[in-house]
Specification:
The protein is α+β, with helices and mostly antiparallel strands. It has two domains: about 1-115; about 115-205, no CATH class. The chain has three helices and nine strands; from the N terminus they run βββββββββααα. The chain has helices at about 120-150, 150-170, 185-195, and strands spanning about 1-5, 10-15, 25-30, 50-60, 70-75, 80-85, 90-95, 100-105, 110. The chain has a nine-stranded antiparallel beta sheet with strand order 8-7-6-5-4-3-2-1-9. It is globular.
């Protein structure tokens, strides 16, 4: 689905089986939406950078409190904000995770949008960089843990990393070797890798 908002194009892609009621394997390709929450515009007039946001469908629940019922729209998440696409009102809204700042705007749906395949080279480059950075951060952290706390603690870190890799595959989707198969999965890996790197300091702090 393509969405035009104030001269900007947002594209929402999905990678779920046909006929699925819910879908949590979606990708929103859009300008840096976090900039819309800034109360004071930056002096720079550079164009918004393209960002990739994990997205999923949102439904109300049936009377049993478990089964999804009425489709409500799509949720997506950035590093500093949560977002929602209201398809009934053709409106997109974002809310800061840290402040009371919000932003909303009407969008016009456009069925002609850029295929995700056209972003493949860029996504591949970012994924490869992310993968190398994560592996290097893990290697450095494990060596430091071994130096400071010994082999047992280093083994605990290795065990935790193995479990994290399995959970990442479960959350994002992956092959039997825990490698991403699609562009959507690669984007999810990129986001998970960045969050994982931020936790390594806890082992040596």
């Amino acid at each position: 689905m393509g969405m035009d908002i104030q001269g900007q194009r947002l594209n929402l892609y999905e990678s779920c089986a046909e006929g699925s009621v819910t879908c949590n394997n979606m990708l929103l390709v859009a300008p840096d939406l976090g900039r819309l929450l800034q109360t004071t515009p930056e002096p720079s007039k550079s164009p918004y950078a393209v960002k990739y946001y994990s997205a999923e469908t949102k439904h109300s629940l049936c009377k049993d409190g478990v089964t999804p019922c009425r489709f409500q729209g799509y949720t997506f998440e950035g590093e500093d904000f949560d977002g929602f696409i209201d398809t009934s009102n053709h409106e997109i809204s974002i809310r800061s995770k840290w402040t009371v700042d919000t932003y909303s705007a009407a969008y016009k749906e456009n069925t002609t949008y850029l295929p995700l395949a056209s972003q493949a080279v860029l996504i591949d480059q970012i994924y490869n960089t992310s993968d190398k950075a994560l592996n290097e951060s893990y290697r450095v952290t494990r060596n430091e843990v071994r130096r400071l706390y010994g082999e047992d603690m280093a083994a605990d870190l290795k065990k935790e990393q193995t479990q994290w890799i399995k959970q990442r595959s479960k959350n994002c989707g992956a092959d039997t070797d825990h490698l991403p198969r699609t562009q959507v999965e690669k984007v999810c890996f990129i986001q998970r890798n960045a969050l994982r790197e931020q936790t390594f300091f806890l082992w040596i702090d």
